[in-house]
Design goal:
Blueprint: E1 14-20, E2 33-38, H1 44-52, E3 70-75, E4 79-83, H2 94-110, E5 114-122, H3 129-140, E6 146-150, H4 160-171, E7 179-181, H5 190-200, H6 205-218
Parallel strand pairs: 2-4, 2-5, 5-6, 6-7
Antiparallel strand pairs: 1-3, 3-4
């Protein structure tokens, strides 16, 4: 008889353990890491807060594009949520965008515990050029991201499948790529995301194997 899967009902322990800037040394964690990427104002902090069962632990910047750090949240002393800087904000200089890109690349290549990247896109709109570039870049780095379509509560229920199809087509996502719709308002999709995370918490070997080639070619990344 198949064992019934347990769905997380709460998270008791959360700590913002490490904040890394452009010149910081990245932590060498021993617990599994799950990274979240997305453009500014896509609802990344809202998603992370929902997964933490918190209202506002992960901070939402009042100025889009201002967050310049990689934030490591220790969850239940079991795993880390890694909040990557938002991308695609027009008022940020090209020089700063390049620095953020290098910082994120250094993390993706340097982390030995990264199990999965969640790429957030707004379900209301066709993926932007920045979204497409980020998806292709993540795949190029050797990862298969899970796509999270945020702001589900902002569209009618009848529009959901059409908008998800638009995202699949717009990103040209690979067959088998997981696509999950999420609402910060009613938390629809949270259980599915947690089930996926818990299923990978002690595995993720496929992602790790793919990273070895990238890490080998990168050499010593330093800080």
């Amino acid at each position: 008889m198949e064992e019934e899967k347990k769905i997380r009902q709460n998270v008791n322990y959360v700590e913002l353990e490490t904040v890394c800037g452009i010149t910081s040394t990245l932590p060498q964690n021993e617990l599994p890491e799950f990274a979240f990427a997305g453009k500014s104002n896509v609802g990344k902090s809202s998603l992370i807060n929902a997964l933490m069962f918190r209202k506002s632990y992960a901070r939402t910047s009042s100025q889009p594009g201002k967050t310049q750090t990689i934030n490591f949240y220790n969850i239940e002393r079991e795993l880390y949520f890694v909040d990557l800087p938002g991308y695609g904000y027009a008022k940020v200089s090209q020089e700063l965008k390049a620095k953020w890109g290098k910082m994120i690349e250094r993390y993706l290549r340097g982390s030995k515990q990264l199990k999965k990247i969640f790429l957030l896109v707004d379900i209301r709109h066709e993926p932007s050029e920045n979204d497409r570039d980020m998806y292709e870049w993540i795949v190029y780095q050797g990862f298969e991201p899970v796509i999270i379509a945020t702001k589900l509560d902002k569209i009618n229920r009848s529009q959901k499948e059409r908008q998800l199809a638009l995202i699949r087509k717009g990103l040209k996502i690979r067959p088998g790529t997981r696509l999950i719709a999420f609402s910060a308002l009613n938390k629809q999709g949270r259980d599915e995301i947690w089930e996926y995370i818990d299923g990978l918490g002690n595995t993720g070997q496929k992602e790790d194997d793919k990273k070895e080639e990238s890490a080998a070619s990168a050499g010593d990344m330093g800080c």
